[in-house]
Amino acid sequence: MSILEENSEIFEFVVRNSLNEEKIGMRAVRDNTLHQVFELLKEETWPEINVEAVFFENEYGKISSSLDVTLGEFGVHEGSVLTLEIFCRGTA
């Protein structure tokens, strides 16, 4: 999956879903946000879930609940592995 912008340096990284340990390779640029990463993953992988909260953790242990952070600001680079924590609303 990729989120690309013209004239920007593209790099590849992996997002690991902590719920099922699934790993998804992605291509993006440093100006893309965690929100863009999450929305693409949700749309392509888990469109039916009702999300309560989302957290990303980078390989250095930094955690962000703000999805407005860019990949560059969050320390994501070529070969990075991000961990995604999703908290879902239950259905009755």
Write the layout of secondary structure elements.
Layout: E1 10-17, E2 23-29, H1 34-45, E3 51-57, E4 63-64, E5 81-88
Helical content, roughly?
Answer: 10-25%
Question: How many extended strands?
Answer: 5
Which value, in Å, is the CA radius of gyration? 13 Å
| Strand percentage | 25-35%
Low-confidence stretches: none
Class from helix and strand fractions: mainly beta
Oligomer: single chain
Strand order of the largest sheet: 2-1-5-3-4
Q: What is the element string, with H for helices and E for strands?
A: EEHEEE
Overall pLDDT: 85
Whole-Å distance between the termini? 33 Å
Number of helices: 1
Main sheet makeup: 5 strands, mixed
> What global shape is seen?
globular
Describe the structure.
Helix content is 13%, strand content 35%. By secondary structure, it is mainly beta. It has a five-stranded mixed β-sheet, with helices on one face. A hairpin with a 5-residue loop joins strand 3 and strand 4. The mean pLDDT is 85.
Looking at this protein, list some descriptive labels.
mainly beta, globular, 5-stranded mixed sheet, 92 residues, 1 helix, 13% helix
Please outline what is shown here.
It contains 1 helix and 5 strands. The chain is mainly beta and 92 residues long. It is globular.
